[in-house]
Amino acid sequence: MNKINRIGFVIKPHAPGIEGILRDLLAYLRGKGVACVLESVAAEMIGARRGISREKLPAKVDLVLVLGGDGTLLSVAHRAALADVPIMGVNLGRLGFLTEIPLDETRLTLDALLAGNTDIISARNLIAARFGRRIHNCLNDVVINKGAASRMIQLGIRIDGKEVAVLKADGLIVSTPTGSTAYSLSAGGPIIQPLVAAVVLSPICPHMLAFRPMVISERARISLKLLTDGEEVSLTLDGQRGTLLKKNDEVEIRRSDAVLRLVTSPRRNYFDLVKEKLGWAEYGGGRRN
Predict the structure, then answer these.
(1) Catalytic status, residue 111
(2) % residues pLDDT > 90 (the chain)
């Protein structure tokens, strides 16, 4: 990891206490000789003269620091990955699987990064969705689903050029291991450890009982073709970007060449995080009768 000399700030502007938190961290980092770059909304919040757009910020810094929730981090994650810049999420939201650093661990984590500790950086593979002439990189998931007033839809699924199924459902989630604890989990998909080289296909309310979530190789080439006409159907990317689909539109999904370097907690591992966020009971280690 390159030395961190410039840190860029991305914020959730309506998070409780965000202005005070931002000012405190700016003072702390500047006291350590680190230059701070603010996205436009953060600069405006504290009356700074110059801000930079969220889209351009990752290419200008050595670390992206997100103050907010997972949605805020996802809005910039793909750009940080393409710029090969690590990203650190401080959780000011609710669940926070990606923004896993609690506010009271922020300085501890920053100090570790500034000291060159790379053990807390986790490499996360992205998936790339090709639709038309554009390729969209996603950290969590690619989702095709019907509109609120639409009937079920049909999707033709091919993997590595071979026909797998025609899915009748409300939609389909194609998820990375990182995204397995997001929308895919709520649709009945499995929790996948982030370092597993896999992709998850999770149907949304399937109208065919035999179709269940599938875990396939991350090297697989997935093709999804919309077979339904006359319904409102959306393609959604990381829950942040999207477009409408029409009959015979095809979305191709594969592993992305981009990798996100996500800063994780110095005090807990992945399974500690899962237990904390999902409220799993602690293992007591007592003897069974």
Answers:
(1) no
(2) 82
Q: Find the DSSP H helices in the chain.
A: 18-31, 40-45, 70-82, 106-114, 183-186, 270-278
Pick the CATH number of 6-120+264-278 from 3.40.50.10330, 3.30.420.10, 3.90.550.10, 3.30.70.1140: 3.40.50.10330
* Per-residue pLDDT reduced to its tens digit, 1-34: 679 999 999 999 999 999 999 999 999 999 999 9
Residue in 70, 141, 170, 238 annotated catalytic:
70
What is 126-257's CATH topology?
Tumour Suppressor Smad4 (2.60.200)
Q: Vertex 161, ends 157 and 166: CA angle to 5°?
A: 20
Its pTM stands at 0.92
Start-to-end CA span in the chain (Å): 51
Per-residue tokens: 214: 């599938």
**Residue pair 152/146 in contact by the 8 Å Cβ criterion:** yes
Q: What is the pLDDT of residues 112-160, one digit of tens each?
A: 999 999 999 999 999 999 998 899 999 999 999 998 777 889 999 999 9
How far is CA 144 from its chain centroid? 17
Task: Using DSSP bridges, classify how beta strands 233-237 and 63-68 pair: parallel, antiparallel or unpaired.
Answer: unpaired
Q: Are 232 and 149 in contact (CB under 8 A)?
A: yes
Query: For residue 88, with 0-12 CB atoms within 10 Å meaning exposed, 13-18 middle and 19 or more buried, which class applies?
Result: buried
Residue type, 20: G
Residue recorded with tokens 């500790």? 117
DSSP-derived 3-state class of residue 235: strand
